[in-house]
Amino acid sequence: MSVTEETVLPELRNAWWEHGYRRRAETGVFGVFAELPQFVRQAVAVAWRADKVRTSLVGLATVAAGAMATFGLLSTQRVLVELFGAGPTPERVEAALPALAVLAAVTAVRGGLGIATGYAQNGLTPRVNQEAERRLFETTTAVRLDAFDADAFADDMERATRGSDAANGLVSDTTNLLAGAVGLIAVAVAVVVINPLLLLALLVATLPNGYAALRAGHLRYANFLAGSVRRRRLFVLQRQMAERESAPELRTYGLRRFLLGQYDMVMDAQTATELTLARRVTTTMSVGAVISGIGLGGVWVLLGVLLAGGHIPLSAAVTCVVAVQAAQRSLTTVTMQLDHMFTDGQFFKEYVGFLERARQYIPDDEPDGQPAPPPLRRLDITGVSLRYPDRDSPAVDDVTISIEAGQTVAFVGENGSGKSTLAAMIAALRSPSEGAIEWNGRPLPEWDRDGLRGRIAVVLQEHHKWPYTAATNIAMGDLDTDVEQARIETAARKAAAHETILSLPHGYRTLLDRTFKEGHDLSGGQWQRITAARGFYRDADLLIMDEPSSALDPRAEDALFQAIRGRHGRHTTILITHRLANVIHADQIFVLHEGELVERGSHADLMAAGGRYAELFRIQAAGYRSE
């Protein structure tokens, strides 16, 4: 497979982290200047929100340091004037002492301002990072669940995750760009004071190098863009050859030689491209250096003519040499920061745009005085439908059911029948497109949102493995209450997880993540027990369990369902499962097919009806019969 053919692979689509580089490559050399004012405003705004004092200190110190550069050059000229003047050496030195004192003071002040700027920037960086990350996470944790169904939202969020780095980069780039620009202005002012003609010479000596640097930056970004597919393929290969998840199959199927061959093929092409880039960049920079060198030679010729004609003293000529060197350093800083600022600015624009676009997914504020829901007496689902944005047919289509408090009910059906989607709407995780769900006769949106969720516990089939201790993983079922070890252990016993946890190196204090020191791995079934314990810990009015035993061994599964049956008559439980033997004792069984409710009743009723439920049950039961 060639590198070109690999572009069709899904893992090689445009990567979110290349967006800023892509824009820089497409913009060209001078296009970077168009968006600079906007980026400067954004950088100042985010830094100001993070820390007003440090932002002010950085700005004032940077400008003041530039002013000191002007005074430094003029003081240098004055020292040279006195030293190159007529008269005995002691008298010339004595005459130069005031200017030397000013130069020393200016140098000391610049040094102090540099220290102050560094101190302020070091303190500003973590605050900017916290400000940007906090705003992002405030948004991602507040949006409705349906936001994650939209591909555009997921892509937006992926790019926005670089927002905190981009914010820090943008603030730092702006500061450095300001320092370079102020340095250039300071040199220009000093040169104009000495002789206005020298300013033109200064531009000729420095601008070609600056243009060459911008052009070289454009070549690098264009090369980065052209190598996008190769770089992503290398990223995929590096993961395949060095990660734990792929290691067993790599060895089982003898993939080592194949993967190394893929690496060599892609890396050879990448190396050839980088060598070509190196030649082009070297040529560009060399041409710029030659032109600037010619311009610099012109500066020396101009200085010689001015000296020979008596238009400027030798001291001014020497000062001009110092100014040219200072200007070249400042211009190097400016050109480098222009590229950095443009790319960081693009990433920050994505971050800001995501925050704005995400507002449409954030639930409206609840009206004041929303009542807290009382204990559940009855749950009514009336004409409920829900349609996902990427599907033509509804996931749930006009479902109507009623559940009495204390009942154990089951949602059954084949994969994709709408069971989990219906449960998500009952749990107030999703809002129905049509119809209504009522808690004690009142629609769910009319109850206090947090109070309602406090009365519902959900054990998800696709559960998240939280990287905390076993105890914390269970207590996360109800963090709003005081965490009690006895309550944690009771919940673990109900889920057949207690003995498993005690066998861990540190019992309930064992960290369940191998990424960290002394962390520990769990099997799929062990994690499922932890997740079920999390649901039991809340002891909620309504417990929804989605495939709670799919990875459990028979003994653990039996213990789990005994605990579920223990809730009967006290609390309400909704079971979603393909193991129909576990729902025989349910008060009601609701059978869904392609989003529609096709059967309802007890196990005996449904078996007598001989419909879809009876067919599925007999298929499973046949597997347990001996010949």
TrEMBL record:
**InterPro entries named among the record's database cross-references:** AAA+_ATPase, ABC1_TM_dom, ABC1_TM_sf, ABC_transporter-like_ATP-bd, P-loop_NTPase, Type_1_exporter
One Pfam family named in its UniProt record: ABC_tran
Residues in ABC transporter domain copies: 376-619
Question: Where would you find the membrane-spanning parts of this chain?
Answer: 56-74, 177-205, 287-310
Q: Where is the ABC transmembrane type-1 domain?
A: 57-338
Q: How does it sit in the membrane?
A: Multi-pass membrane protein
Q: Which PROSITE patterns match?
A: ABC_TM1F (PS50929), ABC_TRANSPORTER_2 (PS50893)
Name the domain of life this protein comes from. Answer: Bacteria
Q: Which GO terms describe its molecular function?
A: ABC-type transporter activity; ATP binding; ATP hydrolysis activity; ATPase-coupled lipid transmembrane transporter activity
Q: What is this protein called?
A: ATP-binding cassette subfamily B protein
**Species for this entry:** Paractinoplanes abujensis
